Amino acid sequence: MSTMIAIPSFGRAVAAPVTERVQRTVPVRAAAAMHAPVSAVSCQGVTKEFGANGTRTLALRGVDVEMHDGKLTLLVGPSGCGKTTLISIVAGLLNPTQGTVSVFGTDLSKLSGRKLVEFRAHNVGFVFQQYNLLPALSAAENAAVPLIINGWPRAKAIAKARAMLVTVGLEKRADNFPSQLSGGEQQRVAIARALINEPRLLVCDEPTSALDARSGQTVMELIKQVAVEPGRAVIVVTHDSRVYDFGDRIVEMTDGRISSERAADRDAESAWPRRTESASYKGLNPISVVGGAQ
């Protein structure tokens, strides 16, 4: 069975297979009509233990937190405080020892096996610290991998991937292999790959830590401009205080607990220099952005 879906940022429709059993609630674009932010992620009393008997380690100690759609939430804190464990549970990669986690109203504890894999494949996008691109595939092929895994014909998957690479400003690099791309360009391919399925939740684990300041700024500008929209929640785990200026909310963790939550300080001086110029991401309308490193 196929249906017509709109490619984000392009308004063009392509045929794509849709599996009836896949759990996907409100499409990202349809949710744009909802003006009030909704609870995208809800964690209640979440704990996580690793090991057994005398070697048990309590990584999370009763986490209660909510994150909303249309917002970029920064999850910060020292190494070992539980950030990666928490986002792994939120993304359905780990099960909590205790507590409940809901993602856009779906209780992840009620999904298991194939259902959880399908939910994750259609609702969660990942951006990793080390890009995780396949070296034998071109940029377009790497960006198309999630679609191909979900049953799209290869030609249509590659076509949509090329369109997504236009959005992240890499249309001229679509046929290049990862070894021919800079670190910042590789991360932009990874962002295109993460967004190709129009996920409702985007999880970014230290997306700037392997990049220099200029490339890191470009990546955060891109995440803020392309990924954050009504109907989608974005979580960025980071040690990099320079990215705080891009967040809507900052959630801080200490020793497996949420130690503070606050709105990002828009008046704070950014560690990156500001200058206003038009964004070059081709899928976007010209807008003023912070910085300008491409």
Proportion in β-strands: 25-35%
Q: Report the structural category.
A: alpha/beta
CATH architecture: 3-Layer(aba) Sandwich
Q: How many β-strand runs?
A: 14
Biggest beta sheet attributes: 6 strands, mixed
- What letter string, H or E per element, gives the SSE order? EEEEEHEEHEHHHEHEEEEE
Question: What do these coordinates show?
Answer:
It is a single chain. The chain has 294 residues and is of the alpha/beta class. It has a single domain, classed as Rossmann fold, CATH 3.40.50. Helices cover 24% and strands 27% of the residues. The chain contains six helices and 14 strands. It has helices at 83-90, 114-123, 139-149, 154-167, 183-195, 213-227, and strands at 2-6, 13-17, 39-50, 57-68, 72-76, 98-103, 106-107, 124-127, 201-205, 233-238, 249-254, 257-263, 277-278, 288-289. The strands form four sheets. It has a six-stranded mixed beta sheet with strand order 8-9-10-5-11-12. Strand 11 (249-254) and strand 12 form a beta hairpin. Helix 3 (139-149) crosses helix 4, helix 4 (154-167) crosses helix 5 (183-195) and helix 5 runs parallel beside helix 6 (213-227). The longest helix is centred in the C-terminal third of the chain and has 15 residues, at 213-227. The model is unreliable at 1-35 and 268-294 (pLDDT under 50).
